Amino acid sequence: MASGFHKTADTFVPGSKTLPGRYYTSPEQFIQDIERIYSQRWVCVGRTSQVANPGDYFLCQIGPESLIVVRDQSGELQAYYNVCRHRGTRLCTQEQGKFSATIQCPYHAWTYNLQGHLIGAPLMDEVTNFNKADYPLVKAHLATWGGFLYLSLSPQPTPLETAFQPFRGKFDPWSLAELVSVRKIEYLAKANWKLIVQNYSECYHCPMIHPELVKKTYYRSGQNDLHEGPFLGGFMEFNAEIYSMTISGRTCATPFGRLGEVDLSRAYYYSLFPNLLLSLHPDYVMCHILWPQSEAETRIVCEWLFAPGAIEQPGFNPQDAVEFWDMTNRQDWQVSELTQLGMGSRAYQPSPYSSTESLLAAFDREYLSALLELNAF
Fold it and tell me: How many domains does the chain have?
């Protein structure tokens, strides 16, 4: 991504080096990433608006696990493993849709209500001591933050509100939970998910890769305000006569009304470990959700979010923002793919990060800590 941050002297660790290539190219390492990170941490899976009404559902895939996210008939959000309790058949194959009132297995018609209770099991009344209450759908932990849906496959995850303490009140002026998705684009980058996060977290590459972006914001402008741990990022400042990150450089919607004067001249960029990239502008918010597909492929869902009231205002032009970032995204995926290819070469060896890549070194520390391999090399 193009959102780089100018390091501050107290956040850069001299001697920090890039990770060995195996962390990006090894199928075995990819399995470890899924098992130790994506299957243990809170993972962003979408927006609450995807399940706005009772019965609405969508499927998500975390490693080998398929899950159903659904809003039940009482309006509560639920997440279930997509597995029938009878013989393990996958219950649902359509990626999104609406259940009437039940979820039925296509194999032997075991049927569950949207609260996950088994309510129908043909012929099982002939089985001694069989009790439907003993066979509900298996739940996964589900929580929301700022309108984003988070899942955890961990048996006992840290409460999401505890995990997100560093962000308490930080994004209130943008009213994230109220924002409306106006456009969504999905990409498939032939690069490891970590390379996508790391590319997003530095602008060392911007003069070479993003000529349009550097016309709007100086690549060494701004400062990090979160520079250690699972949440990393900060702000970049607009150049003179630039008011947002759009093709025109003008705002494409009415700016958020609660922003302070200084925020109107900045864009904020944060990576939320492991798979959400959050970009906040004066007039819109953009997010990327990363879905690792293999050690060398990542599916990326990018959305542009706006305040509901702004959509109705004269001059609303989301395409100005969409075109800018779609162009920038594609530039980023291309250079990330080139990096992926180089990581697989016998000529590649870890080398020092530049002083403008402090967030990449911090990401590596968080990543290795999550793998319990902080002293691995």
Answer: 2
Task: Classify strands 148-152 and 141-145 as parallel, antiparallel or unpaired.
Answer: antiparallel
Q: How far apart are CA 142 and CA 90, in angstroms?
A: 20
Residue with tokens 């959000």: 77
Q: What is the pLDDT of residue 267?
A: 98
Strand partners, 183: 304
Q: 210 and 268 share a domain? A: yes
CA angle 326, 58, 40 (to 5 degrees): 85
Asked which of 139, 157, 175 is the last residue of a domain, the reply is 157
Q: How many Cβ atoms sit within 10 Å of the Cβ of residue 86?
A: 15
Position 372 scores a pLDDT of 87
Burial letters for 168-192: b for 16+ Cβ neighbours within 10 Å, e otherwise? eebbeebbbeebebbbeeebebbbb
* The model's pTM: 0.94
Q: Which residues of 317-330 are buried (b: 16+ CB within 10 A; e: fewer)?
A: bbebbbebbbebbe
Query: Do 110 and 194 share a domain, yes or no?
Result: no
88 and 185 in a common domain: no
- From 98, 130, 157, the end of a domain falls on 157
Residue 158, token pair as written in the block: 């840290």
Contact 281, 312 (CB under 8 A): no
CATH code of the domain covering residue 76: 2.102.10.10
Domain containing 291 equals 22-40+167-370
Q: How confident is the model at residue 152 (pLDDT cuts 50, 70, 90)?
A: very high
Does a cis peptide bond (omega within 30 degrees of 0) precede residue 282?
A: no
